[in-house]
Design goal:
The complex is a heterodimer. Chain A is α/β, with parallel strands linked by helices. Helices cover about 35% and strands about 30% of the residues of chain A. The relative contact order of chain A is 0.17. Chain B is mainly α. The radius of gyration of chain B is 25 Å and the shape is globular. The chains are: A alpha/beta, B mainly alpha.
């Protein structure tokens, strides 16, 4: 069990999280701790409860049981905005970018910078482009602020989506299958983006089906099966073979 | 984005030059002013339609709105002798309200814009005909609203006021669409509503506002058209006008899939449509071919634009490849520098449960 002393270090702490949808039990008794600068891989087959867990942490719906603590304080989210306000960002699989806008416009979407011209607040294109360029620089991405997103590669789109989370100084970034739909070379770009987040002390939860990616960037791997946490191991103490057998149920728990 | 508008402007200039060369009457001062007046009349509500189309929706109800608001407006002025500022305000508010109802049905009750506004088209037209017992309403011999009439159908230094209204509204909406946060959200919502919602944008409000603006501009257009024709016959007033607006917006670069278009484009699209109508008359092409000419030009215009865009995309993709190719070396080195990455990649045999 977690001692209060350790709790001070965790950015996110889940205690006994459970979720029922009517008679269906989607999650049961999930405990989880994530520390700043830690990359945790969340693995499991379809229907194992990964997405439900992520949605609870992101504030899409509340848990039926259990407690969420963020930065040591118990939190309750009514809406995703509440979760974002305290520093939890989700990078969705389909990336949630507007193709017709530029990289900078997407980074600032919903949080536009404006400048006053008389009584009117107009978009401050220059400031947004400059800040976006800074963020892309931090991520060591070649993305140019004025390029349209529809002209970008999968890796660059990920950079834009991740730059969004840096803009709000998120403390926890959850990434839903960031490497599922892109080419092998771009996967490497995305994994290096995750390293950049880690360097800056951001906690990352990586939800992925791709074993090599999880083993390449994660410090710890958490395996879900049938709504329960079946394993929570440091990467060095496990192997892809063991994780695979945990996911499929060949091995019950570790 | 500016390329599209420039292309449209060139097309407009070329067509005008050719028509003018064949029949100099086309470029006569009187004809130009007449066209400016019509561009003003048809441009005002095309701007609203354009905003709606950018959200990925459509407003089919505009023409019927003109009929309903038109008969009410004339009735207020003649039968009820309401002072014109009040009548004007009521008509504008009526337009805003109709737009608001449609916006509510579309965003809150999740109905499709096509269906909601198609039903609007039928309902408003029916209401206008029932209200007047299908009889034409017009101004009597009295000067019920001569001041407003002078504003709506007058001119300043020869330039029709309708055209001046259009320019003013275009500038205001241009700033709103291209320079304000609301405009940015409108584009985002039109292309990817889900992304906009995840970004914390109140997408329902943004979309509904577009319909309200469109309704309000329909109110303005109603007043302009009423003083242009001086009477309203409820069964034909404004018939098909929404299609002119849609055509102008599409010609001007709006995509019916949403997220694309500009105010300048819509104004140029309206101008091109009016020039086409005018040249049919001027060149002695049978009037019955009017719509056919319009349809052909829109078809060719949109086709050409699509082909050009596809070519530009291919070029951009090639340029992008050339740019990223040298980068790949560096990223591989980065990847190998991470010890875990190098160790883990060979284990990919255990991939995928």
């Amino acid at each position: 069990m977690v001692t209060p002393h350790d709790a001070g270090l965790a950015v996110l702490e889940l205690k006994g999280i459970g979720k029922e949808f009517g008679a269906i039990r989607a999650l049961h008794g999930v405990d989880l701790r994530v520390s700043p600068g830690e990359v945790v891989g969340l693995m499991g087959d379809n229907g194992a409860g990964k997405s439900t867990l992520v949605k609870i942490i992101a504030g899409n719906f509340p848990p039926s049981h259990g407690e969420i603590r963020f930065d040591g304080k118990p939190v309750h989210f009514a809406r995703p905005i509440d979760a974002r306000a305290i520093g939890i960002e989700v990078v969705y699989q389909d990336l949630a970018l507007a193709d017709n806008l530029t990289a900078a416009a997407n980074v600032f979407l919903g949080r536009e910078l404006t400048r006053k011209v008389g009584p009117f607040a107009l978009l401050d294109h220059k400031a947004m482009a400059a800040r976006a360029l800074e963020l892309f620089g931090e991520l060591r991405s070649e993305t140019r602020p004025h390029d349209l997103v529809k002209q970008m590669s999968g890796g660059q789109r990920q950079a834009v989506a991740i730059a969004r989370t840096r803009l709000s100084n998120a403390k926890l970034v959850m990434m839903d299958e960031p490497t599922a739909a892109i080419s092998v070379r771009q996967v490497e770009q995305v994994l290096s983006l995750i390293h950049r987040l880690k360097e800056q002390g951001v906690a990352v939860m990586l939800i992925s089906h791709r074993m090599p990616d999880v083993f390449a960037v994660c410090d710890r791997v958490v395996v879900m099966r049938r709504g329960e946490k079946r394993a929570d191991k440091a990467i060095g103490d496990t192997s892809p073979e063991e994780v695979t057998s945990l996911i499929t149920g060949a091995k019950e728990a570790a | 984005m500016m390329k599209k508008e420039l292309g449209l402007f060139l097309l407009l200039a070329v067509i005008s030059a050719i028509t003018g060369a064949i029949n100099p009457a086309f470029l006569s001062f009187v004809n130009l002013l007449n066209m400016a007046n019509l561009i003003g009349l048809f441009g005002v509500f095309a701007l609203g339609e354009g905003l709606v189309i950018i959200t990925g929706g459509i407003d089919l109800s505009l023409g019927s709105m003109f009929a309903l608001l038109g008969v009410v407006f004339i009735d207020l002025l003649t039968t009820y002798q309401v002072p014109w500022p009040f009548a004007l305000m009521l008509v504008l508010m009526g337009g805003l309200a109709l737009g608001g109802i449609q916006g509510f049905l579309i965003t809150r009750l999740k109905m499709q814009p096509f269906i909601v506004t198609l039903c609007g088209l039928l309902i408003y037209r029916g209401a206008a005909r029932y209200y007047t017992s299908d009889s034409t309403r017009g101004f009597g011999y009295g000067d019920e609203a001569s001041t407003l009439s002078n504003i709506a159908s007058g001119n300043i230094a020869g330039i029709p006021n309708t055209f001046i209204f259009l320019i003013i509204l275009a500038v205001v909406l241009g700033v709103l669409l291209h320079r304000s946060v609301y405009g940015r959200w409108l584009y985002a919502v039109g292309k990817n509503e889900e992304a906009a919602r995840y970004s914390g944008i109140r997408t329902n409000l943004v979309i509904a506002t577009a319909y309200v603006i469109s309704g309000g501009l329909a109110g303005v257009s109603t007043v302009l058209f009423v003083f242009y024709t001086n009477s309203v016959s409820p069964s034909s007033f404004g018939n098909f006008y929404e299609l002119y607006a849609i055509a102008a917006a599409v010609l001007g670069g709006c995509s019916l899939r949403g997220g694309e278009g500009s105010i300048l484009g819509i104004v140029l699209g309206t101008a091109l449509l009016q020039v086409l109508q005018n040249l049919v008359n001027i060149l002695g092409i049978p009037n019955s071919l009017n719509f056919a000419v319009m349809g052909t030009v829109i078809l060719i215009g949109v086709l050409a634009d699509q082909q050009l865009q596809a070519r530009r995309r291919r070029k951009a993709a090639l340029a992008g490849l050339a740019r990223t190719a040298p980068r790949s070396k560096e990223t591989t080195i980065l990847q190998n520098a991470s010890p875990r990455g190098a160790a883990a990649l060979p284990t990919s045999a255990g991939d995928q449960a």
